Amino acid sequence: MWDTLFGLTNGIALAAWAVLLFGPRTKRMRAAILLIPIAVLCALYAVMLIGLTAGLFDPVGNAGGMSELVRNYSVDGLMALFQSRGGIVVGWTHYLAFDLMVGWWIAGDADSRGIPRWSQLGVLLATFLAGPLGLGLYLFYRATRPEVANADH
Asked: Which residue ranges run through the membrane (predicted)?
């Protein structure tokens, strides 16, 4: 089950990133990316998290459950959360959903500021591969270019 969910969530995220990077960025397409893949990833995450926390989905029992992390909020507690395949897939889905949402925001903000699509590519790829790095690069880019930082929306 977890391998299937891992493949499904990765497929959804990769398809959405491909559209975000190379597809048209019309108002309708931006809405579709927000409402379909991002919302689906969030919904899958919620179902998996609740099922894992309740012990419904993972044959290992509490391994990978949130109860250990709540009791032991530490590196050891976090390690216990990721002791199961379910814990890893839930955590990975969290990254996929948030990184895609951040990429969606960056693309829209950059478009509204007139930043050329070709120059967004590196920042968006960095966001895809390492979300906070890409976001940091974009915010730095925006802050250090007065013509971009002061652009009216």
From this structure: 6-24, 31-57, 86-106, 118-141
